[in-house]
Design brief:
Layout (H helix, E strand, L loop, with lengths): L3 H13 L1 H12 L14 H13 L3 E9 L7 E9 L3 E11 L19 E3 L2 E3 L3 H21 L5 E8 L10 H7 L8 E4 L9 E6 L1 E10 L3 E2 L9 H12 L2 H4 L13 E7 L8 E2 L2 E10 L5 H19 L2 E10 L10 H14 L4 E5 L5 H6 L4 E3 L13 E3 H16 L2
Parallel strand pairs: 3-6, 3-7, 7-16, 8-15
Antiparallel strand pairs: 1-2, 2-6, 4-5, 5-17, 9-13, 9-14, 10-12, 11-13
The structure holds zinc ion.
Length: about 400
């Protein structure tokens, strides 16, 4: 167990870093690291700044792993690994954060310039300050507090600062996992890129994602003579109603997840005819399915095909089903995994709250670790302002999260 006096010392030290942490936030925000796919130049400049910052602040062994990317002016996407030595090297306690940010979006919605971070009422505002700089800065200063106090963490600390999280991670943590044996099965891996405002959600599992496009083909006709055509829109409407039966057919519940069921929702609708007096011959809508990992995605697809065939016969239409996205869930991190226990203990000590392991409907970058066989957990205390205009980071959350990481680094 972490010695309470030692943790107090480290905590006080982290408090003293508050202004330095805000300062680092402002300097990082000034180097927008936007993926080439989103119109930016990538993370090379931000990585260069961070690598020298880490070296200046006592991190040994800062490694730059370049993932080739010819769309980036630098020709690569940078991934940084930095270490702080612990008493034991039997395992490494990792915190992985990402350097890339999304574009600011509509500038008129911002109260200030997105890349010139400003402080207001205990918050730092700017693009990237919460997603994911809050916990990048927190993890750096958690480790730095040990150095400043002349103390060693129980185990080696590893910081992974990666690229390409916002556009799929292939050139970020995906590249690191494939090309470098940096991680070991016994390591604790924390990915502070999801959470809630109380810091009580430890994300350990995800649902499978299935996005489908339904194209219904009938026959166009004049609105006054429907019998001369086949109304594709009407058939599609019956199809949507029939597909609601998926909720019953795949109706099992799993309390690990919020919501605790699989969901099957019609979402996007493409325009069909532009005028009222034409029977539409073609209709397109989409569906977003989030499926509990206990079900096979293929079984859901088979069931959907069966339902569609019934509609085809009844309405004499043809229904083409296209897959827009199919992402089967990664194997969950067990709710009793060491990383979950360590987080719960630290959250209790710092925020005085009981945190709970939970599954969510969307994929997180932790899934890449889980697919590679590592029990990673996502956790952070945040207001969830990621990707929004006027994105902000609550400074108390940044400082508190640093204490949570430090508490974990002390645990033996
Ligand atoms: Zn993020």
């Amino acid at each position: 167990m972490a010695n309470p006096d030692t943790f107090d010392r480290i905590s006080r030290r982290i408090e003293q870093f508050r202004d330095e942490m805000v300062d680092l936030q402002i300097r990082l925000t000034a180097i927008p690291a936007i993926a080439p796919a989103s119109g930016g130049e990538g993370e090379a400049q931000k990585a260069e700044f961070l690598a020298s910052f880490l070296k200046q602040h006592g991190f040994g062994d800062v490694t730059l792993i370049k993932a080739p990317d010819f769309d980036a002016p630098s020709g690569y996407r940078p991934n940084l690994l930095a270490y702080a030595k612990g008493k034991s090297s039997a395992r490494t306690n990792w915190v992985m954060t990402h350097m890339d940010v999304v574009p600011p979006g509509e500038l008129s919605l911002w109260k200030g310039p997105p890349y010139k971070a400003w402080v207001e009422k205990g918050r730092v505002y700017g693009r990237g300050v919460e997603d994911n700089q809050q916990d990048m800065v927190a993890s750096i200063f958690a480790a730095k507090a040990f150095m400043a106090e002349g103390l060693l963490p129980a185990y080696d600390v590893g910081l992974a600062l990666v690229a390409d999280e916002e556009t799929g991670s292939a050139k970020g943590i995906g590249h690191v996992l494939e090309n470098h044996g940096a991680f070991r099965k016994q390591d604790l891996i924390i990915v502070p890129d999801a959470g809630n405002e109380h810091g009580t959600m430890i994300e350990v599992a995800e649902k499978s994602i299935l996005w489908l496009k339904f194209k219904t083909l009938g026959k166009q006709a004049h609105g006054s003579t429907p019998e001369k055509g086949t109304n594709s829109f009407k058939a599609a409407a019956f199809l949507i109603a029939a597909l609601d039966g998926l909720y019953r057919h795949f109706g099992e519940r799993d309390r690990l997840f919020a919501p605790p069921v699989s969901t099957f929702e019609p979402t996007k609708k493409e325009a069909n005819v532009p005028n009222i007096n034409t029977i539409p011959g073609e209709d397109v809508f989409y569906m977003d399915c989030r499926i509990l990992p206990k079900y096979k995605v293929a079984d859901v697809e088979k069931r959907i095909r069966t339902v569609a065939s019934g509609i085809e016969k009844k309405f004499r239409v043809k229904i083409e089903i296209g897959v827009e996205q199919r992402a089967p869930a990664a194997p969950p991190t067990p709710a009793q995994a060491p990383v979950v226990k360590a987080l719960r203990k630290a959250i209790k000590a710092v925020y005085q709250r009981e945190a709970r392991a939970l599954g969510i409907g969307g994929g997180t970058v932790a899934a890449l670790f889980r697919r590679a066989g590592f029990a990673a957990a996502c956790w952070s205390k945040l207001d969830d302002k990621a990707h929004q205009p006027n994105e902000y980071c609550v400074i108390d959350n940044m400082v508190g999260d640093a204490k949570v990481f430090a508490h974990i680094f002390l645990q033996d």
